[in-house]
């Protein structure tokens, strides 16, 4: 059970690593914006992927809105996003190290459709930082699979089903798999 769980975690980690790489490369060509309102009709969540970074922002209105669409919306912008301007007016930058930024305060980061400021917070993370977070589990899974195959071959077991092949000559009696030549 633990081995299977580790294998699933390795595959998920590998897929996450590939997804981060694709987003990273794409982010230098276009800016992707995702947004939605939460169920309480007061909070707008915005995710921006651009220029090798991902930004997560949440802004909560003082009064609930009406008829907000709670589906995720996506649009793409070919114009670059300028991350160098510092915090928006009304926002305070609390953390800024190795490309990781945290800001919070009162801001008008929402479309002005409701005509009010909001309590907002924003995290900016560089996409390169995701590689050290996603790659180790995938690499450990690949190493574990290679070691497992070596162990099976060393013990004289069938690589498909694990049947003992020491008494067999050319095929596995259990599955009919050809016995690999030993060097």
Write the topology of this structure.
Layout (H helix, E strand, L loop, with lengths): L1 H26 L3 E7 L5 E8 L2 E9 L11 E5 L13 E7 L2 E8 L10 E9 L3 H26 L28
Antiparallel strand pairs: 1-2, 1-4, 2-3, 3-7, 5-6, 6-7
Keywords for this entry:
about 180 residues, alpha+beta, 7-stranded antiparallel sheet, 2 helices, about 30% helix, elongated
Explain how this protein is built:
It is a single chain. By secondary structure, the chain is of the alpha+beta class. Helix content is about 30%, strand content about 30%. It has helices at about 1-25, 130-155; strands at about 30-35, 45-50, 55-60, 75, 90-95, 100-105, 120-125. A 7-stranded antiparallel β-sheet has the order 4-1-2-3-7-6-5, with helices on one face. A hairpin with a 2-residue loop joins strand 5 (about 90-95) and strand 6. The two termini are about 35 Å apart. The mean pLDDT is about 80.
Compact summary:
The chain has 183 residues and is α+β, with helices and mostly antiparallel strands. 28% of the residues lie in helices and 29% in strands.
Mind telling me the C-alpha Rg? 26 Å
Main β-sheet, spatial strand arrangement: 4-1-2-3-7-6-5
Structural class determined from secondary elements: alpha+beta
Q: Give unreliable regions as ranges.
A: none
Q: Quick check: average pLDDT?
A: 79
Main sheet, how many strands, which sense, barrel? 7 strands, antiparallel
Strand content: 25-35%
Number of strands: 7
Helix-residue proportion: 25-40%
* Molecular shape: elongated
